[in-house]
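Issue 218. Parser rejects a valid record. Input:
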Amino acid sequence: MVSLNKTAIVTGAASGMGLLFAQNWAGLGGSVVLCDADGEALAKAARGIRDSHAGQALDVLCDVREYGQVEHACRTAYETFGSLDLVCNFAGGTATRVLGVRGTIGEFPDVPIAVYDWGIDVNLKGQFYFCHAASRYMRRQKSGLIVNIGSITGMEGDGYGVDYPTAKSGVMFGLTKSVAQYGSQYGFRCVCVSPGPVLTRPGMAEMETLLGRAAEPQEIVDLILFLASDKGQFINGENIMIDGGRNAMGRGKA
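Output the parser choked on:
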C-alpha cells in the first residue's frame, strides 16, 4: 500500500492514464498536482477528484516543453503540500499522430522538422525537465521517486513517427539510469515504466502481444503504485517493460 499524506505530480493528467493515476493516488489519500497543457480539461479533472476522492487535488497549467512552467509546477507542489514524493511523467505522444500528420505527408524526410521537434520536446525534454526541476526538492528532503514513461516503441522503432522511439529510448535508458545514479546519493530513485499496447484508444487493441491482448490502463497504474509503495523500494534505475510479452516476440510482429 502507498503511504498516505504524500504528494505526487502527474503530467498529462487531464485525460488517459495520467488522469487515472491521479484518481488512484487521491483515492488512497494522497495529494496530487495535475499538470496538463489543456487548461479547461485539467480544471475539470481536478475538480472531479476533489469532489469524489479522499485526497487533495490541485491543477497547474503546464506545457512540459516550457521549463519555467515545469519549475512552477514543482515549486507549487512542494510549497502547497510540504513535500514532492512522486513525479509521474505521463505527458507524451507520437507527434505525427497527435498533430494529425500521419498518413497525410510523404515519408520520413518529407515530414516538416517542426513536427519532430514537437515530439522530441514533449517526449524527451519534457521528462528531462521534470527530472531536473523535481530533483532539487527530492535532494532537499532526501527522498522521492521519479517515474518516467517509456514505450515498447522505444525498443521497436518507427520508420515514420521517428521522434517517438528516439525520445522514448533516451528516456528508458540514458535519462532514467543517469537520474537514478545522481539521486542515489540523496535517497531518491528514478524508474522507467514502458508499456506495450494499452487500451487508451481503439488502435491499441490491434497490436499483437504474446498474451493476445492489450493492457488495461489500470494495470499500468497498479505497477507504478507498487513502485511507489513500501514493497517497491529496492527497484531503481531500471526500465520495466509491461507489454504482455510483445518485446519477446520476433521482430516481424505487427
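Fixed in the parser; the record now loads. The chain has one domain: 7-247.
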